[in-house]
């Protein structure tokens, strides 16, 4: 399922630059070859005909791309390039900007056909520093037209997430529960990223929900819920009208409170008072919003919502938020050696949450009750206020476990770990799956524990680490952690262990 709403539409543009002592026709010809390659790969890009050789050209190019709706700019060094005007163009355009350069083409044209863009990238980089600019430069930013086109395809993904963050509002309801201070959320780093935050009381949500009691749209949403659950079991059909009412409440709040922002994610308190006042749990509705590209993080986890939204933009698919929850029993590991393959026992853990994972990510999603809440609130009666989870084993898939988080002191830090969910029965409850990440035990100790990351992690259902890594660099996040391979020690890892 590809997400089409609540994430930006990227309009790429390309501007070629040329140092005036080189033929501008060389940059022009190479730019056209890149555009042709992009077209063949199914990527649309606005092809500016302005060649930037000086400051006046930079102003013309800026007006051209802005006038044609470009919101992600590729500055292409078809030859050495004028480092002053090209970085001025980047500065005036604002992010996201990509710099990339042309490789030489043939031994048969190394006089008039040599562009020296390999050298020009070095001069450009120093001028970026002089202007204090942060742009996207690929891992190896020099290539043929086909190679440059592939780099631009990567940039489109990075730009989508960047633009999304700059237009994002995170709406919250209620403070974090007392026992979940680990999901701390200093606000200042969010504003530095360009993210807006609207914090509301649980009473605001409860009042809005009650005002939707007789909403004429409830039957329509109920039908949609029944369709969504047709391949599973709806154990509590009587709670469906309340769930539909709650969904409409959040939908209307989104539309009425978007304000100057363009996109929304939620971070909502979901216990302990929620159950006793609403008489259901919100987990399933959270999953439905995530399916449509609007993440709702549990337990007022603001940075969890931010993380989920980034993953939504990068993957363009439904994502989830999971607890890094429990170890896999040794006998379950031993019984599934054929599926486990070369993962060690300590590479595995179970990712769990009460029922917020989109139905499309589960083998079979059933509408159930939240067992932990039932134990706490209604241990001796049939489920009532604990109804409303979406439960099932998470389907096997490539994944990226990711989180962007502020430290207690307001410094942004992150981790990225690629892995997979395995087709192993959890034998448990909730939305849950067996997760495999190489060298997880060391990563758990020397990143997650050592750097005080909370137990919530965002999960995208494809390997997208390279895009996240470049996005974080573009955002100015320097503390980026990953699961280091065997033999590469973490700073805090005991070399004598």
Report on this model:
The protein is of the alpha/beta class and 497 residues long. The chain is 38% helix and 22% strand. A 6-stranded antiparallel beta barrel has the order 10-11-16-15-14-17. Helix 3 (83-93) packs across helix 4, helix 5 runs antiparallel to helix 12 and helix 7 (202-211) crosses helix 9 (240-257). The radius of gyration is 25 Å and the shape is globular.
Salient structural properties:
5-stranded parallel sheet
User: N- to C-terminal separation?
Assistant: 46 Å
Count the DSSP helices: 17
Helix content percent band: 25-40%
The largest beta-sheet arranges its strands as 10-11-16-15-14-17
- How large is the radius of gyration? 25 Å
Largest sheet features: 6 strands, antiparallel, barrel
Low-confidence stretches: none
> Roughly what fraction of the amino acids lie in strands?
15-25%
Class computed from helices, strands and strand pairing: alpha/beta
Q: How would you sum up the global shape?
A: globular
Mean pLDDT across the residues is 95
Strand elements, count: 18
SSE blueprint:
Elements lengths: L11 E6 L6 H17 L4 E8 L2 H13 L4 E6 L5 H11 L3 E6 L14 H14 L11 E2 L1 H22 L1 E6 L14 H6 L2 E5 L1 H10 L6 H11 L11 H18 L5 E6 L4 H6 L4 H9 L4 E2 L4 H14 L4 E7 L3 H5 L2 H4 L7 E6 L12 E4 L1 H7 L9 E7 L3 E10 L5 E11 L8 E6 L3 H10 L6 E5 L4 H10 L4 E4 L15
Parallel strand pairs: 1-2, 1-3, 3-4, 4-5, 6-7, 6-8, 8-9, 13-16, 15-18
Antiparallel strand pairs: 10-11, 10-17, 11-16, 12-13, 14-15, 14-17, 15-16
């Amino acid at each position: 399922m590809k997400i089409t709403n609540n994430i930006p539409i990227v309009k790429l543009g390309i501007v070629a630059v040329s140092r005036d002592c080189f033929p501008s026709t060389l940059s022009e010809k190479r730019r056209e070859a890149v555009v042709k390659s992009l077209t063949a790969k199914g990527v649309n890009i606005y092809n500016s005909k302005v060649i930037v050789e000086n400051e006046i050209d930079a102003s013309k190019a800026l007006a051209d791309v802005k006038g044609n709706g470009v919101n992600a700019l590729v500055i292409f060094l078809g030859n050495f390039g004028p480092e002053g005007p090209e970085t001025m163009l980047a500065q005036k355009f604002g992010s996201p900007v990509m710099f990339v350069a042309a490789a030489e083409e043939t031994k048969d044209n190394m006089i008039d056909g040599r562009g020296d863009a390999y050298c020009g990238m070095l001069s450009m980089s120093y001028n970026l520093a002089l202007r204090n600019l942060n742009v996207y430069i690929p891992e190896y930013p020099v290539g043929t037209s086909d190679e440059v086109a592939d780099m631009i395809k990567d940039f489109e993904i990075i730009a989508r997430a960047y633009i999304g963050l700059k237009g994002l509002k995170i709406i919250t309801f209620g403070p974090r529960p007392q026992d979940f201070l680990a999901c701390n959320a200093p606000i200042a780093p969010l504003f530095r990223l360009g993210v807006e935050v609207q914090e509301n009381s649980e009473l605001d949500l409860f009042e809005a929900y009650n005002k939707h009691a007789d909403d004429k749209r409830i039957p329509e949403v109920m039908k949609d819920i029944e369709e969504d659950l047709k391949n599973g079991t709806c154990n509590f059909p009587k709670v469906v009208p309340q769930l539909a009412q709650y969904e409409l409440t959040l939908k209307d709040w989104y539309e009425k409170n978007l304000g100057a922002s363009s996109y929304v994610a939620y971070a909502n308190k979901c216990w302990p008072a929620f159950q006793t006042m609403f008489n259901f749990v919100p987990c399933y509705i959270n999953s439905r919003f995530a399916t449509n590209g609007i993440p709702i993080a549990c337990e007022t986890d603001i940075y969890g919502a931010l993380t989920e939204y980034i993953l939504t933009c990068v993957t363009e698919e439904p994502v989830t938020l999971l607890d890094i929850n429990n170890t896999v029993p040794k006998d379950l590991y031993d019984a599934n050696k054929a599926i486990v393959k070369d993962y060690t026992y300590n590479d595995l853990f179970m990712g769990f949450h009460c029922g917020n994972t989109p139905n499309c990510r589960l083998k079979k999603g059933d509408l159930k009750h939240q067992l932990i809440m039932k134990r706490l609130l209604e241990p001796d009666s049939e489920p009532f206020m604990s109804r409303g989870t979406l439960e099932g084993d998470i389907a096997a898939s490539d994944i990226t476990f990711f989180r962007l988080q502020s430290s207690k002191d307001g410094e942004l830090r992150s981790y990225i770990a690629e892995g997979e969910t395995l087709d192993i029965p959890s034998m448990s409850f909730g939305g849950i799956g067996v997760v495999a990440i190489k060298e997880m035990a060391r990563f758990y100790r020397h990143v997650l524990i050592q750097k005080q990351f909370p137990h919530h992690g965002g999960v995208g259902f494809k390997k997208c680490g390279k895009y996240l890594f470049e996005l974080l660099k573009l955002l100015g996040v320097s503390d980026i952690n990953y699961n280091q391979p065997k033999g590469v020690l973490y700073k805090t890892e005991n070399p004598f262990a």
